Structure formats: C-alpha cells, structure tokens
TrEMBL record:
Organism of this sequence: Glycomyces niveus
CDD domains: HTH_XRE
Family annotation (InterPro entries): Cro/C1-type_HTH, Lambda_DNA-bd_dom_sf
Transmembrane annotation, as ranges: none
Name this polypeptide is given: Helix-turn-helix transcriptional regulator
Domain HTH cro/C1-type: from-to ranges: 5-60
SMART domains: HTH_XRE
Amino acid sequence: MGRRVAYWRQRRGMSQQVFADRIGKSKSWVDKIERGVRRLDKYSVITELAEALSIDAGQLLGREPKRRPGMGGCLDQVEVESIRQSLERYERLGRFLEAAPIESTPIPELRGSVNYCWLAFEKGHYPVVARSLIQLLRDTPVAEDRPVGGTSADAAELMTQVYQIASTVLRKLGEAQLAWLAADRAISAANRGNDPLLAGIATTRVANALRALGRHQAALDLNVQVAHGLISETGGERSTPAQISVYGALLLQGAMAAALAGDSTTSDDLLDSATRAANILGRDANYYYTSFGPTNVMLHRAAVFVELGEGGDALAVHDRISPAALADLVAERRAHHHLDMTRACVQVGDMERASRHLVTADRHAPAEVRCRPVAIELIDQILHRTKGEPGQELRRLAEEVGALN
C-alpha cells in the first residue's frame, strides 16, 4: 500500500512535504508509510489519503476488480484538468498581473525534456507524457520571454512541439475542444520560430482537432492548402527528406479528412500523391515525428477504407503490409493501426479476428486501448457480437477496463 501511496503522490506532482502538509502529518510519517516501515491499518486514514490524492480508497487497497477509462495507465480527470489549467495560464503576462516572475529554464534543458516527452508519447506512456506536459506548458512560454542558453525563436520552436504533443494526446482522450486550443497555440508558436516545417506539421494537429470536432471539410482544405504551399516553396523533388516527410504527413491527414467527408475520390488522389512522396523518400523515416514512409502510407490507406466503411478492403491492405516494416514503426503508430483493423473486422463481422487485433494493440501500447473512448467502445461491440464466451485474452482486457458487468 505504501508503494501505491508513493505512486499516486508522485503522479500528482507532490513532494513528500507538500503531501504531508495536505494531510496534516509529518514528512517522516509519509516517508515511513511509503517505505512500508509504518502500516496503514485504519480505514479512516486510508480514505483521508485517497481523498488528498483524488482517487478512490479501493485503489490504495489494491481492490480494482473493474477499471474505467482514465484509470490505471491512463490520464485521469485530475491530470487532464491540470493540462487545461496549464493551457489557460499566461506566465508571460506576470508583469501585468502582479505575479512573481518564474525562473527561466535553460533552453538546452528544455530541449531534453521535450525530446523525452516525444519518446514517451511514441511508446504510449500517456501518464508520463501528462506529467511532462504540465511542467513544459509552464516553462516554455517563460523561456521564450526570457531565453537562457538560446534565443526566443529556439524556445518558440520547443513550445510548438509541446503544444502539438498536448493536442494529440487530448484528442485521443476525447477532449476535442482542448485539442483544438493546443493545436492553435502550436501554430502561433511555430510562426515565431525559424523552422517553417514546424508550422507545417502543426497544421496536421489543427486539422486533426477539426476532424474530431466534425469539421471534416475544413480539415481537408487546411491540410491540402498547406501541403501545396510547402511543396511550392521547397522545390518538389529537390526537397529534403524532412520536407518530404512533412508534406507527406499533410497529404495523409488530408486523405483521412476527405474520407470522413465522404469524398473517396479526393482521398484516393491524396493517398496516391503521398505514395509518390514516400517513393521519393525511399524508406520509412520519422522526421519531425511523422513516421512518414511507404509503410505509413499503407496504414493510412487501410484507415481510409475503414472510415469509408469498407472493412474488407482495409483488411486486404493490412495483409499486404510487411510485418517487419510494421514492427519498425513506433509503438503508438502500430497500436493505432491495430485499432483501425479492429474496426475493420467489426465492419465485416469477424469478431475473432477483431479480438486478435485489439489484444495486439494492447500489447504494443496499452494506453492506446485502455485510455481511448473509441477502443472501449470497440471492446463493448465485440463482447456483444461474440457468439458464446469471449476468448481469454479479450475477457481479461475487458475486465481490466471495466467492460464486463
């Protein structure tokens, strides 16, 4: 139980002293509890600790027969609210708001933290991402205003990456409005930096947030316009691999938006253009964290078929993807694809294969399944449409996310 107290205290960003002050105990008392030197044997004390940590007492007791989205390996509501508050703060206005100035973090240190946040995102470690974001959303605006060890433009470029990560994670969790706000901030920050490709990739975050809000045509238009502008400026086939990757990512997100808008012709055209760009690139790469290349184009082609309701065609594309090439992609991208293929299997009525894809997604990046509303809905659909008892692995997964009564 002491380890659980320590885990949730750290997840809430509290030191032992801050936590001790909150519950009216000494720091030494908290330390002894967390190390197991002192036992927690009064339920009233356990509930007091749980309340201070904003969790249910059962989570400290280890009694979690059912898990809900947002629990166990996911961002919970407290962490989402912390990100919301971070987005609402304006530290650079401190001189007008009579707030004490915040010490500026050196830009090289911030760069290391942003890279760490990206790696955690690509592995699907969303609670780690959340804790990093809460701090970075506070530190990067201050660094842009008072740069140490770099320029304001350097800080702005880091800031746009922070907003992009925040937007993507929030969208996955179903927080579309917050995702749009973060993506819009990413565009503004990118325009204050010296790297135009950051503005290009930030565009995909805005478009994805618009898609989540049901603004499919607006998302399509934005992706296509910026893609065409980018390739015009960079010189087509003379572009660098990074430029091709960002251009290709814009085309792929445009294809997804077109599919959601019901425009299969435009979607096909954009996928064909992305294929040509991937062939020029000649390999799977991850410039600007795009994972762009021939394999990712095929993943998006399959995903487009899913959005068009053509599950059989999507599965046919999946069957042509090299398992080795798929395995080389980052964990988040692999899990996302297997979720798409789960949807395809549900569309064609193959619940057994749907279960396999869902379980595979959970193995690659558990948070992609346990934290996303779309995945929880898929589990529910498979359970209701499966004849007889569900497989052991699916049943275990369903129990852990609270999908079984």
